[in-house]
UniProtKB/TrEMBL annotation:
The chain crosses the membrane at residues 48-66. It comes from the Eukaryota. GO terms for cellular component: mitochondrial inner membrane. InterPro entries: NDUFB3. This is NADH-ubiquinone oxidoreductase B12 subunit. Residues 1-26 are annotated as: Disordered. One of its GO terms (biological process) is mitochondrial respiratory chain complex I assembly.
Length: 83
């Protein structure tokens, strides 16, 4: 098998990657890091996904409690059917 021919331009991608000093393999990792810090963390992105869900849950639970305490249907448990 013949040895690989040298590039006409003299550019060697392996030498270029070694000279960059980036050992992780992703040269853009430093520039992408901001996407996962500060207000863009996983928790902050999830927290903003459902605005008002906490208030709605508390209001619905309050409604269910009020319905059970104050708005009981007196005809429901007698076993009689009214037509």
């Amino acid at each position: 098998m013949a040895p690989p021919r040298p590039s006409l331009t003299g550019f060697d991608p392996k030498k270029f990657a070694a000279a960059s000093g980036n050992s992780k393999g992703d040269p853009w990792a430093r520039y992408e890091a901001w996407r996962y810090t500060g207000p863009f963390t996983r928790w902050n992105r999830f927290k903003g996904a459902f605005p008002g869900l906490g208030i709605a849950t508390v209001a619905f639970a309050g409604y269910l409690v009020a319905e059970q305490l104050f708005f009981k249907d007196e005809h429901r448990n007698h076993g009689e059917e009214h037509h």
